[in-house]
Amino acid sequence: MTKGRMRRDIVLEISSEARRSQTEARKYAGSCFIEFDELKAGGPVRECIAVVREGQFGKLEITFEDGRKLGLNGTSVGTLMRDLGGDTDDWIRHEIEVYAGSVQYQGSPKDAALVRTHSTKASSDMDDKIPF
Question: Residue 35 above 90 pLDDT?
C-alpha cells in the first residue's frame, strides 16, 4: 500500500467514524417540540416531514427532517388530510409551514400551532407521467 493510499484510507475511516458519532448523538439530544410561543415570537417555520406516528395521548406527531417535532391538533390533521390525503405515508417529504394561530376549543379561542401546506395531493398526482 502506498503512503498516499494509506492516508486516504485513514481519512475515510475517520470521516466515517465522525458521521457515526454525529448520528448516534441524536438519540441523546432529547426531542425538541415546536411550540406556539416560539412561532409567535419568531414567525412561521417551514419544515419537511420525515416521520408521522401516533404520539402521546393518541394524537398524531410529526418529526421533521431536522429532528424537531410537532404534536398535531385536530385542525392541523384535517388540513393535512384535505391537502395531502388520508394516508400519512403520503405526507412524508412534503414541506409544510407551521404558524401561530388559534382554534375554537369548548367555545373559546385557544392559541395553537397550526399547519398549512404548499402542495396538495392532487398537484402531486399531476406530476405522474401519463403513459401513451
Answer: yes
Same domain, 117 and 89: yes
Helix (H, G, I), strand (E, B) or coil at 65: coil
Q: How far apart are the first and last CA of the chain?
A: 55
Domain encompassing residue 20: 1-29
- Taking alpha carbons only, the member of 68, 75, 6 closest to residue 31 is 68
Phi, psi of 110 (to 5 degrees): -135, 135
pLDDT at 115 (0 to 100): 98
CA distances 5 to 9, 10, 12, 19, 83, Å, are: 6, 9, 11, 21, 53
Shared-domain flag, residues 5 and 46:
no
